[in-house]
Amino acid sequence: MPQPGNESAVRPLRAAVIAALKVGTDLPDTKIKTGAIKQGLEPPYLLLQNYEEPVDNFHGRSGSKVSFLLKGFTLVQLGDDPLLELYDQCYRTLHRRRLSVAGHLHISGTLELLTTFPDPENNTLIQFVAAYEGVTRNT
Amino acid sequence: VARDLLIEVIYKPTLDDIEKRGKAAVSGSKAFFAEKGAELKARVQELTPFRTGFLRGHVRVVYFGNQTTRGFEVGWYYEDFASRGYPPYYLYIEFGTSGRNATPSLGPAWARMEPLLAADLENSFLAYYAR
Fold it and tell me: Inter-chain contact B92–A122, Cβ cutoff 8 Å?
């Protein structure tokens, strides 16, 4: 059984989301995380947090819900514009787009920007928070 | 970039709805929204992390409306915190930060209410006409 955070057993749906974001944004591959942010990670980067999907999705099940918070981080001194550009890239990648999983399953859902604010625990960062809710469908 | 954090619920019936159901029914929805607003506020407060009580004590519900629109919003207002010299830390609690996991209360409370709200409103109208 795959365990969250075990990169050797990444769930297909989560892997599909990450792969789509890597292609759809101009971030290097190493800047998308699905857990605690590693110290020293340089902005901009994305974080998938509170990721939820049924465990049996590991083998691909149609009609299951997928949800997570997507957070984007940039440097404070760069202001809102790069942060919102990063969100815009994520929006174009995820919003109502069908992401293929294992060749037969698709995720489609909506991405909604919830808020932006300076990170109080790292005064060099500013972050946005967006919520994604999707459903899987068989082709 | 700091902003209020609110769930806003708006009911805006069509003119046909208004004619069919009458102003009395819309007026009757005032009690419905008063109840739902208070319920959502209470649910948020149940889930809000407690340390000093300031966060829980400043969950607010504000009602608005006229003859064609009725609604409420529940959450935290930036001004309530800024006027006390506090940052909008409800954002950090609800969504987490780079060094802290999210411990949301507004989102989960709304998630429990939202799927049933439309049906509850419909039932309130039916109950109104059944009197």
Answer: no
